[in-house]
Every structure is written in structure tokens, then in C-alpha cells.
């Protein structure tokens, strides 16, 4: 959530940011927010004055001995109470309306974020690793998987409908190996603390991370109870410190977690509907950082977060590139976002496997995550960041397509072989 002071004191800056973000709905709300904030501040002053007057009149009633004068003051108190009650109710309504409007306003882009209306204005910062060369026509994973009997699309659809699939045999083991490998690298080499969170959370957690109210239609929930399936581990892990004041020396906090993720993916006809690239359920290893509330700190932490994700790509021998999102392609909560995309040789496309984002104090304000820089110091809002480290099944896709051989077998990356019992290749059964 934005600091209301920024909207109050720099409304045109915020309006321009909404234009840059290509968010006309948020832009339309700014004038209402300015109006509600002004009414709230004016009414708050009036309510405070009436409360002060009430205390003074109450004291005079207690000191008055004359019956007539006392009754006059009692009548005055009744009138004051009625006006105060009406004003407090109006103030409560205005505050609720202001809070509701503020929940729909996205984060402001950080300095230096490229301005552009859509993803065609994103900037490729760098590309690493050579794309694989083949002396045969590489196959896409939707052909490789069934031939190797490691992906079963028909039974996935039978169980749960379209956009579901079954990994079986060495396909399931490869997925499990990737998760364990990525967790181990982040824990032992990058300094993250592993968390195994619930996969269902209460609604308040989704408001805190910015998933609600804007993206409610993309979330799955229990119809009877306040349980929501996590769209990403970012939600439960960030909320570990919701409504807390972290003591000096606590920050920075680095967490990593594996969870399945559940989202209502809305897909159009075309290449996105083929294979396992998009689905309503997928696995992901997520990194979350809670750091000091300073933009320079956030920038350093974003670079190290992105490097940790890139390190997984390097260890797996997967060609990748780092792309900076322009304003029109930023997420609702991000001040700055760097995507990591890996090359998939069979489907001939770059696949996003990590979005590394710095949120500044946007999530922390919604979640009430504060810290005390030093003993006796005034509390401040923390800054939060997160990024996939990495997201499946797209890493699985890239391994199948980039490591395929002419006979249809798949060479297992060396980094994964200890997690595969020493197996070096996945081949079709004779």
C-alpha cells in the first residue's frame, strides 16, 4: 500500500505513475482518494474538537451545584453526544472508503524503470550460455514426454480436466530432484533459511501481499471456510512477520520455500495451451527477503536475489537471459522487476522461470511489517523482495528439450545426478 502522504503531497506524480503503469482504473481513483483524505482530515479535526469539548462539559457538570445550570449542561452534553456520534460514524465510513480505494492503487515504479505501455518495451539486460545446437530437428516436450512415458496428458485430463497432467516414473523423480537441488543450493550456498509453510492461508494474508482485492478471480478458495490455496509461497512466507516489530539485528531475513501453487490461468488458443507450460497447479521454489527500509538496500538485495536465481540456471547448464520489466509490464506490487527466462530448444521460445521483484515498503505497509533500526529508535516499515528460485515445470521443459538426444533420450544435467541416484540418462523402455 502506498503511503497516503505521497498521494496527498504529490498527487500529480502519482497520477503520472498510474499513466506509466497503464492502469486507468487506478488513475481514476486518485481524485477520489485525495477527496476522501481531505474529508477525513477535516472531520478528524472536528471529532477531536468535539471530544475535547465533551471532556470539558463533563467536568463542568461534575463541578456545577446549581440544578438549573446543571440540567442545561446535561442537555448540552446530550446534543454534543448526538453530533459526536454522527460525526464518528461518518468518519468511520470515510476511513473505510479510503482504505478500500487505497487497496486498488499499485506500487510506484522505482527510479530508472523503463517507461513503456507493454512487454514489447521490456529491456534484455544480458544473455548467458550458448543455445544448444542439434544435428537433428529437436522435439518439444509435449512429444518427448509421452514417448519416454514420463508425462501423461490424457490421464491428467481424466483426473482433473484440461491444463492438468501426470508426471510419472523418472519424470516425477526429475521434478522432485529439481526441487531438492534448488532448495539445497539456496540454503547451503546462498544463505537462505528453509520454510515449509501451509499451502492454504486465510484471506488477510492475500491482502497483505497485494493478491487481493485486485486478483481475487485468479485465486482458488474453500467455499465454506476462510481458506485460500496459495498462488505462490510468497504469500505465507511474507506473512510470517505480519503485524510484527522486528528488533535491532533481526534484518535481513532470507527465506526459501517449496510449495505447490494454484492459480486460475486464463489461456488463449495457441502455443501456451500445449504441453505443461501453463497449468492451474505447478511447483515452485520461492525466495523471500525482508530487509531494511532503504531503496539502496533494496536495489542491492534485488541484484543478489536475481543472481541466486541465475546461479541455478548456470548449474543446470541452461541458457538464460535477464529482462527488466517496463512500467506497463510491472506487477501490481513491484517497484522494480527483473525476469529470468530460459531457452527451450524444442518449443523454440524463452520461458520465464523467475520474476525477481523489489516491493520497497508497499507490502510491508499492507502487512504491518516494521522494524527498529537500533535500540530506542523509531520503528520503520521494512522492505520486502521475492523471486522464484526457480519455477517448475518450465525448468523441467528446458531440461527435456535442451538435453534431448537424436534417439529421443534425455541426458540428465550433472548437477542433478546425485539426486537421481547417479542416473545419467532417461531413455524409452525397450
Features:
430 residues, alpha+beta, 8-stranded mixed sheet, 3-stranded mixed sheet, 12 helices, 19% strand, elongated
SSE layout and pairing:
Elements lengths: L3 H6 L1 H10 L3 H40 L3 H36 L20 E6 L12 H7 L3 E2 H8 L5 E2 L2 H19 L4 E3 L4 E2 L1 H7 L18 E2 L4 H5 L5 E3 L6 E10 L18 E11 L3 H21 L4 E5 L11 E9 L4 E10 L3 H6 L1 E3 L8 E2 L1 E9 L2 H9 L7 E2 L13 E2 L4
Helix pairs in contact: 2-3, 3-4
Task: Report the portion of residues in β strands.
Answer: 15-25%
SSE string, helices as H and strands as E: HHHHEHEHEHEEHEHEEEHEEEHEEEHEE
Principal-axes shape call = elongated
What structural class do you assign from the helix and strand content? Answer: alpha+beta
Number of helices: 12
Low-pLDDT segments = none
Q: If you average the pLDDT, what whole number results?
A: 94
Helix content: 40-55%
Rg, alpha carbons: 27 Å
Q: Report on the biggest sheet.
A: 8 strands, mixed
- Separation, N- and C-terminal Cα atoms: 58 Å
Strand order of the largest sheet: 1-10-11-12-15-9-8-4
